[in-house]
Amino acid sequence: PSKIKEELINKYPAKVAKKRSKSIVVNDPEIVPEVQANVRTVPGIITQRGCAYAGCKGVVLGPTRDIVNIVHGPIGCSFYAWLTRRNQTRPETPEHENYITYCFSTDMQEEHVVFGGEKKLKVAIQEAYDLFHPKAIAIFSTCPVGLIGDDVHAVAREMKEKLGDCNVFGFSCEGYRGVSQSAGHHIANNGVFKHMVGNNNEVKPGKFKLNLLGEYNIGGDAFEIERLLEKCGITLVASFSGNSTVGAIENAHTADLNVIMCHRSINYMGDMMETKYGIPWMKVNFVGAESTAKSLRKIAEYFGDEELKAKVEEVIAEEVPAVKAIIDEIRPRTEGKTAMLFVGGSRAHHYQDLFSELGMTTIAAGYEFAHRDDYEGREVLPKIKIDADSKNIEELKVTADPELYNPRKSKAELEELKAKGLEINGYEGMMKQMMKKTLVVDDISHYESEKLIEMYKPDIFCAGIKEKYVVQKMGVPLKQLHSYDYGGPYTGFKGAVNFYKDIDRMVNNPVWKMIKAPWEKSEPESLEASYVAS
Ligand code: CFM
Ligand code: HCA
């Protein structure tokens, strides 16, 4: 693998090669080498990253159905974020609000860039309010807003005051705010925490109450998790933010546990809620049948109730036979095959569990925009150097709430849970679970992906829409782990079965053998020759 690493960077100019080499690491799960992450992409390199606005508006706020999300900026930014992420939602009744299908924008023009856009923004907020009377309106700043200096927060305060019964708040999530969409996650967490969480003290009935953090209901993933929680008798107070509502999020501080699916996008919320309200958090993974069972058991162990533990075992016993029947049939066809996973900030880790259930090995993986803790584990947090780009993002000063702080578990109880193997307020990252000598690459470039495929010829490559057709033209099937190629859900027991079937169909499809990859062609076909042939 170190030769492979050499091969990946030897075409780069010396300075670029030096920088990229720190983000390309041969794994050793015992030592866990350092991975350079969350740093600027070298200009000129084709990255798969997005911007801070995408992380704030598209990822964290976008999935909640009853917030009107107004994008302050040119129309292109809005169009980009319009339903492309496949975050599904299910209103209580057809009469209930659902703004997800709408696209709200101030449609900023040159004139507003020159003379300012605040007036236009106020008009847009008023118009949205008159049309829908929503509970909340959020404003998202795109790049030009920061450049011309429109004060979206002042506009939000003024309009909130004026409207009276509508929560209006803004986000300074201009695309350039950070090195990737990761900055937007942090900005979104801060805003949701400041303006929403804690606004409603109504307590939902239920004995075991939790919030599901970092689950955005892509392809219906949250529906399957909700089904399982309900079956176990666990009350879901709020989801952040898939299939969720303003009311639920405002109520989140009444739960007794936060479980985190996507650590990268929402770990800030977990920490802030722990400090302010005394709610511990626990990392879970509902991607993979075994991981789902493990996560349900962890939740039962946290609550420490014998009846709940028995119920969880009963649910697992009921769900597993259907999974086993399918995997027993499929696994002989997928066993021994190889996969590469390059996705945003957590799926490159989570989906390795599904591949291992299929008997497949993940030989290379990486995130687009995660931080070192997502690779190496949260214990490296104190060692991470805070650079100028990270310093730009506000770090909220949170303290215990004088009235609402109530530690759900005492220090001794938390220690006891930790001794039982429950990782409280912790995440061990991706690398400890990957095999020795596998490759870990942060913010992989297009060039490096092609090189890796040429060298390893994996049976499947997992990434997004930007990589899909380039990779498939190389004769390697590409599974989109962002949009799921319009399939899913892939969480829970039902989702695992969906995934096994989809991967079986892809890696065992004879069509890939009929495509000649560039390295298999002896001579480039002339355009003329291909006309004659067809
Ligand atoms: Fe978390 Fe996500 Fe992901 Fe992410 Fe994303 Fe996404 Fe993703 Mo695309 S929140 S980090 S910013 S799991 S949109 S639902 S698929 S890159 S791996
Ligand atoms: C985003 C959203 C995205 C893009 C997916 C892709 C998603 O980064 O703004 O490139 O295929 O999951 O929809 O990550």
Task: Write a structural description.
With 534 residues, the protein is of the alpha/beta class. Among the domains are: 52-178, Rossmann fold; 209-330 and 379-419, Rossmann fold (3-Layer(aba) Sandwich), CATH 3.40.50. Helix content is 44%, strand content 12%. It has 23 helices and 14 strands. Strands 1-12-11-10-13-14 form a 6-stranded mixed beta sheet, sandwiched between helices. It has a 4-stranded parallel beta sheet with strand order 3-2-4-5, with helices on both faces. Strand 6, helix 10 (221-232) and strand 7 form a beta-alpha-beta unit. Helix 1 packs across helix 19 (446-456), helix 6 runs parallel beside helix 8 and helix 9 (181-195) packs parallel to helix 12 (263-277). The radius of gyration is 24 Å and the shape is globular. It binds FE-MO-S cluster and 3-hydroxy-3-carboxy-adipic acid. The site of FE-MO-S cluster has 16 residues, from helix 3 and helix 12.
